[in-house]
C-alpha cells in the first residue's frame, strides 16, 4: 500500500514539474488559438470619428488578421494620455444549434472589438467578458492606424 501511495505521489510531482517547465511552450498554442478564433471573422467594421467602412471580402479579412501579428503582442498598460483613433469590430456567424437546418441564415454576432490609439503602439482587445491591453510592434500600429 505504501509503495502504491509513494508511486502515485511521485507521478504527481513529475507531472507538476513537467507542466511548469512547459508553460512557456504553451504560449504558442494560445497564440494559435487567438489567430484561429479571429480567423473565423466574416465581417469587420472600421470606425474613426465620423468615418466608417466595412470589410467583408474573405481574403482582405485574412490579410488583416495576419498583419496583426498577434504572436508579437505583449500585455501592457495603455498610457493615461492615449487618445483613441480606430475601432475595429469583428463579426462571425453564430454557432449552429442542433436541429436547425443548414439553410437557415444565421446572424453575424460580434466576437471582438479592437481599439487603437493615435501615434502609440498600443491597442485594447475586448472579447466577450474581458478586456486586455497590449503593446504591439511599431509596424503593426502603423498598419492598423492607416485604415
From TrEMBL:
It comes from Lederbergia galactosidilytica. This is Uncharacterized protein. It comes from the Bacteria. The lineage of its organism: Bacteria, Bacillati, Bacillota, Bacilli, Bacillales. PROSITE patterns: PROKAR_LIPOPROTEIN (PS51257). Residues 1-19 form the signal peptide. Keywords: Signal.
Amino acid at each position: 500500500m505504501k509503495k502504491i501511495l509513494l508511486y502515485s505521489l511521485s507521478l504527481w510531482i513529475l507531472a507538476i514539474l513537467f507542466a511548469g517547465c512547459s508553460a512557456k511552450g504553451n504560449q504558442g498554442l494560445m497564440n494559435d488559438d487567438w489567430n484561429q478564433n479571429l480567423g473565423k471573422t466574416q465581417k469587420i467594421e472600421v470606425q474613426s470619428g465620423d468615418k466608417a467602412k466595412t470589410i467583408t471580402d474573405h481574403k482582405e479579412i485574412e490579410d488583416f488578421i495576419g498583419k496583426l501579428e498577434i504572436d508579437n503582442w505583449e500585455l501592457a498598460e495603455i498610457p493615461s494620455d492615449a487618445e483613441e483613433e480606430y475601432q475595429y469590430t469583428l463579426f462571425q456567424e453564430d454557432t449552429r444549434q442542433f436541429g436547425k437546418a443548414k439553410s437557415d441564415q444565421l446572424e453575424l454576432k460580434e466576437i471582438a472589438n479592437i481599439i487603437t490609439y493615435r501615434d502609440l503602439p498600443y491597442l485594447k482587445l475586448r472579447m466577450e467578458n474581458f478586456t486586455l491591453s497590449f503593446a504591439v510592434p511599431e509596424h503593426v500600429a502603423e498598419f492598423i492606424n492607416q485604415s
